[in-house]
Write a structure and sequence with these properties.
Elements: H1 2-21, E1 25-32, H2 39-56, E2 59-60, E3 63-71, H3 77-89, E4 95-98, H4 102-108, H5 112-115, E5 119-121, E6 136-138, H6 143-156, E7 161-167, H7 170-185, E8 189-196, H8 204-213, E9 217-221, H9 226-237, E10 246-250, H10 259-262, E11 270-273, H11 282-295, H12 304-321, H13 328-335, E12 339-342, E13 345-349, E14 356-368, E15 371-383
Parallel strand pairs: 1-3, 1-4, 4-5, 5-6, 7-8, 7-9, 9-10, 10-11
Antiparallel strand pairs: 2-3, 11-14, 12-13, 13-14, 14-15
Helix pairs in contact: 2-11, 2-12, 3-4, 6-7, 12-13
The structure holds P-hydroxybenzoic acid (PHB).
P-hydroxybenzoic acid binds near residues 101, 123 and 124.
C-alpha cells in the first residue's frame, strides 16, 4: 500500500517535472541592418529566419524558438557591443545571430565566453572573425573563399595582369590578399592594388586610376548595398567596359538586388560566390518560393537570406544537442562537422575554421525572360576558408 502510494507520488512528481520543462522558449537575438542604407540585408536576414520557420516550424522537441531583432544600420562596433550586451543581460537570449559587417562581429566576440552564448554569423565575412572566440560559427562565406576562386578563374582564362580595387576594411583586405596571393602563385601579376574608404560614394577618381593602370581586367570587392551598386554603375558610366576592361568581382557586387539598376551594362560580368537565387536545385526552388513570399516581393531576395536560413538550422541542432540548456561550448561542439544540403548546395561546418566548406560558383550576369540573374557556369566544390588554413 505504502509502495503504491509512493509510486503514485513519484509518478505525479515526474509529470510535474516534465510539464515544467516542456514548452521552454529559447530566445535568439538577431542583430542586423533593419533600417538605413543596408536595410535590404536586414530584410533578407528576417526573410531567411521566417522562411526557416515557415518550412520547418519553430519547435525543437518541446522547446520553441523566439527570435528578437535589433537594428544596427551601419558598421558601429560600440553600438554592436551594447546591443549584444542588452540582448544577453536584459532579454536573456541563449543565442546571438546575424551581424552584417565585420567590425561589429569583432566587437561582439569578446562578450561571448563570459555570457555563455554562441554567435551564429549570418554574414560578416572576414576570415579572422572565428578566431576571436571559440563560440562563433558562420553560415555565410569568407572573402578568401570567393576571391581565391576568382583568382584561379582569371589565371585559367589566360588573364595575365589585373588591377584590384577593394573597400579598405577587413573583408576588402582579405579579398585583395587572397586574390593577389592566388593569382601570383598561378603566374599572374597584380599591377596595382587600390583601396577605397567605406564611406566613399564618388567612384569616378577610382575609375580613372583603373584606366591608367592599363590592365585588361579588374578584380573588385565592396560590401553589398549602396557601395557595390555605386561602384558597378561608375564602372559602366566611365566607359571601362567599352575600353575592354574585363570586370571580375565577388558576388557582393552583382547581388541580385543591384542587377535591375545596372541593367544590360552588367551583362557578361563574372563573379564568384556561394549563392545565386538562380541555383538549379529542388531545395533552392522550394527555398526561393517560400522566401519570396516571406520578403514580400520579387527582386529583393538576395544572399543574406540563405545564410540566415541555414543559420537557423544550425541553431536548432545546437538546441537539440543541449536539450535546450544554456551550454554554449557544448552547442558549438555539437555542430562541428555538421553537413547538410543548403539551398546553395552541399555544405559542411568545418570543425577547424567554423565556417562552411561549400561550393563556390563562377557566375555570369545574364538576362532570362526579362530578369537579370547570376547564372552559374562552373563549380568549385568543397571550398574551405583558405584564410585560416595553413597552405593558403
Ligand atoms: C563584411 O563586413 O564582412 C561584409 C559586408 C558585406 C558584404 C560582405 C562582407 O557583402
Amino acid at each position: 500500500m505504502l509502495a503504491r502510494r509512493l509510486f503514485l507520488a513519484a509518478a505525479a512528481l515526474a509529470i510535474a517535472a516534465t510539464a515544467a520543462c516542456a514548452g521552454e522558449t529559447i530566445r535568439v537575438g538577431v542583430i542586423g541592418p533593419f533600417s538605413g542604407p543596408f536595410n535590404l540585408a536586414g530584410k533578407n536576414f528576417k526573410a531567411g529566419v521566417d522562411t526557416y520557420f515557415a518550412l520547418n516550424g519553430s519547435k525543437v522537441g518541446d522547446d520553441s524558438l523566439d527570435v528578437i531583432y535589433r537594428d544596427l544600420p551601419t558598421p558601429d562596433p560600440a553600438k554592436a557591443k551594447s546591443l549584444a550586451q542588452e540582448l544577453i543581460v536584459k532579454d536573456k537570449v541563449q543565442y546571438l545571430a546575424g551581424i552584417y559587417f565585420t567590425p561589429d562581429a569583432l566587437a561582439v566576440a569578446p562578450l561571448l565566453e563570459e555570457a555563455n552564448v554562441p554567435l551564429v554569423i549570418f554574414n560578416a565575412a572576414t576570415s579572422a572573425i572565428t578566431t576571436k572566440s571559440p563560440l562563433i560559427v558562420r553560415t555565410s562565406f569568407t572573402l578568401w573563399q570567393t576571391s581565391a576562386t576568382m583568382a584561379k578563374v582569371a589565371a585559367q582564362r589566360g588573364i595575365k595582369k589585373v588591377v584590384t580595387a577593394v573597400t579598405d576594411y577587413g573583408p576588402g583586405v582579405d579579398a585583395e590578399t587572397a586574390f593577389k596571393k592566388t593569382f601570383e602563385a598561378a603566374g599572374g601579376t597584380v599591377v596595382e592594388t587600390i583601396r577605397m574608404p567605406l564611406s566613399t560614394n564618388d567612384f569616378n577618381p577610382v575609375m580613372q586610376r583603373i584606366k591608367d593602370a592599363g590592365a585588361p581586367a579588374l578584380f573588385a570587392f565592396l560590401p553589398a548595398g549602396p557601395p557595390s551598386l555605386g561602384f558597378a554603375k561608375a564602372f559602366n558610366e566611365n566607359g571601362l567596359k567599352q575600353a575592354g576592361v574585363q570586370f571580375l568581382t565577388t558576388g557582393d557586387v552583382t547581388d541580385e538586388s543591384n542587377l535591375p539598376a545596372l541593367g544590360d551594362a552588367a551583362l557578361g560580368v563574372l563573379s564568384t560566390y556561394h549563392y545565386s537565387i538562380a541555383h538549379d536545385s529542388d531545395a533552392n526552388r522550394k527555398f526561393v518560393e517560400a522566401a519570396t513570399k516571406a520578403i514580400g516581393g520579387p527582386d529583393q531576395l538576395t544572399f543574406p537570406a540563405v545564410a540566415a536560413y541555414d543559420g537557423m538550422y544550425v541553431i536548432t541542432k545546437m538546441v537539440a544537442a543541449t536539450g535546450g540548456k544554456q551550454d554554449a561550448q557544448k552547442a558549438v561542439d555539437a555542430v562541428k562537422g555538421l553537413a547538410w544540403e543548403s539551398p546553395r548546395g552541399p555544405v559542411t561546418l568545418d570543425p577547424q575554421t567554423r565556417t562552411l566548406d561549400e561550393t563556390i560558383y563562377l557566375r555570369i550576369v545574364d538576362k532570362v525572360d526579362g530578369r537579370y540573374i547570376n547564372k552559374e557556369i562552373a563549380s568549385f566544390p568543397n571550398t574551405p576558408d583558405y584564410g585560416l588554413l595553413q597552405n593558403k
